[in-house]
Amino acid sequence: MSNLPKTEEEWRLKLDPEQFRILRKKGTEMAGTGEYNKHLPSHGVYECAGCAAPLYRYDHKFDSGCGWPAFFDGFPGAISRHEDRSFGRVRTEITCTNCGGHLGHVFKGEGYGHPTDERHCVNSISIKFNESMPAEDKLNPKH
């Protein structure tokens, strides 16, 4: 993870065009089209597609019905939050702390009944699923 691209051109070489548009240019994939939208595994870790940093445990994912992968929490320190005032509204953008890649947005107070009362609405293209790595082997998160 220490050999991250430093320039826009290096990122363009590392990522495919759609990954670059979303991870580096803060794009959004079309609702319901992402690989991980309905993916509900019984083990594993979701990692950043840009740098492979662990972001989410398998058991923090839920089906929100919104058309994008939803998580109620990430690994401690893995996800950064930023105010996003684009499109004439105020939202909270979430990015990979390690590489700054755009993941999506976080929404609070929607009543899903999870411990954090949050929904991390994440672009599938921003993440990769690693089924061979138990969540406990990546980090030691507390539930």
Q: What is the share of helical residues?
A: 10-25%
**How many domain modules?**
1
Secondary structure category:
alpha+beta
In the CATH hierarchy, what is the class?
Answer: Mainly Beta
| CATH topology group | Metal Binding Protein, Guanine Nucleotide Exchange Factor, Chain A
Question: Can you give a write-up of this model?
Answer:
This protein has one domain: Metal Binding Protein, Guanine Nucleotide Exchange Factor, Chain A, CATH 2.170.150.20. It is globular and about 40 Å long. With 143 residues, it is of the alpha+beta class. The two termini are 26 Å apart. The relative contact order is 0.24. The protein has helices at residues 8-14, 17-24, 135-138; strands at 45-48, 54-57, 61-62, 70-71, 79-84, 91-96, 102-108, 118-122, 127-130. The chain contains 3 helices and 9 strands. One of its GO terms (biological process) is protein repair. One of its GO terms (molecular function) is peptide-methionine (R)-S-oxide reductase activity. It catalyses: L-methionyl-[protein] + [thioredoxin]-disulfide + H2O = L-methionyl-(R)-S-oxide-[protein] + [thioredoxin]-dithiol. Pfam families: SelR. Its EC number is 1.8.4.12.
Q: Summed up, what is this model?
A:
This protein is of the alpha+beta class and 143 residues long. 13% of the residues lie in helices and 28% in strands.
